[in-house]
Amino acid sequence: MSANIQDVANKAHVSVSTVSRSFTRPNLVSASTRNKVLAIAEQLNFSISKSAAALKSGKTLRIALLISDQIRLWFSASIIQGLNQVFHTAGYDLSIFQISSSKERSEFFTMLPTRRNADAVVVCSFDVNTNEIAQLKSTGVPIVGINCLYPQKCDFDATINIDDDQGARLMARHLIGLGHHNIAYVRTTRDVSLHFSVLQRYHSFIDECQNSGITPTEIVAPANSDRISAIVSMLLGSSIMPTAIACQEDGIAIPLMFQLARSGYSTPKDVSIIGFDDSFYAHETGLTTIRQDPVDIASTAANITLALINAEKVEDQYRIVPAQLIVRSSTAALLKE
User: Taking a C-beta distance cutoff of 8 angstroms, is the pair 258, 291 a contact?
Assistant: First the structure.
C-alpha cells in the first residue's frame, strides 16, 4: 500500500498542510523543514498530485511565457532558465508560447482571454500595443514584462528591462572615442514589432552617432542561417569598408569576426567590432560588448510575479537595469595614416 500525505506528516512530525506547502508553496516553509519533508516523502515513495493542489488552491500552478525569439538562442534560453529556477522551486510550471509571425501573434491574443489557464503572464521582448494589453489584462492575472515596455507606455503590473538606450549609446561613444567615424551598424530584418529590445538599441545607436555628426552605414540582413554571409557580402560590396562595426547582438558579432578574417580583415587591426549581450564565447573571442544578465533579470521577474500572484506589495514595480560596457580586444583606436 502506497504512503499518503498523512503518513509523511506523521513521520516528519509536521502538519498535513506543511507537507502540502513543502511541495506547492515552498517559499512559505523553512528550508530545513522542507528538506526534511521531501527526504521522508522520497523514502516513502510519496508524491503530491499537482492537479489536486491546484484544485485546492484555486490556481493553475502555471505561468505563461510569451516570447518572440527562437528558444534555442542565448537570450531566450537564459530567460527560460532564470524564470524556471524560481517558478519550479515554487511549484509552478512554465508554459512557453513562441510567437514568430504576425499571424501567430494575432491568434494568440485573440484566444488568450478565453483560455485563462495560467496564474500570470510574462511577456518577453514584445512591443505590445494598446489592444493587446487590454486582452492581456482581461485575463485577470498579473502581467509582467521583460525587455518589453517602458513604464510610461504600459499598463502592465510590473516590468524589468535592460537599459537598451544606455547600452547602445555606450557602444557608439566607445567607437567614436576611439576615433572611428566610418561606422556600420548591423541588424536583422526580423519583424521589429516582435523584437522590441533590439529596435530600441538601433534607434539609440543611430541617434548617438548623429549627435556627433556621424551617419552610420546601416547593414540590414535577413534573420536566417545565411545572415552572416549576407552581411559580409554587403560590407565587402560597399565602396569604402567601415573601420568599425556595431552589431545588435553577440550572435552576429562573433561569427562576423571569423567570416571577415577569412576574407583577409583582421580584428581590430583592420576593423573594430562591438556586440551586445556578453553571451557565450564573448570572453573567449575577446569581443568588446555590452553586458546584460538575462538569467538574473528573469529570476527577478519571476520573484515579482510570484509576489503579485500572492497579492503581496511589490516595491519598485518598473525597473531599469543599467548596461555595462565590457572592453576587450576586438576594438582599438583608429590608426591614422
Answer: no
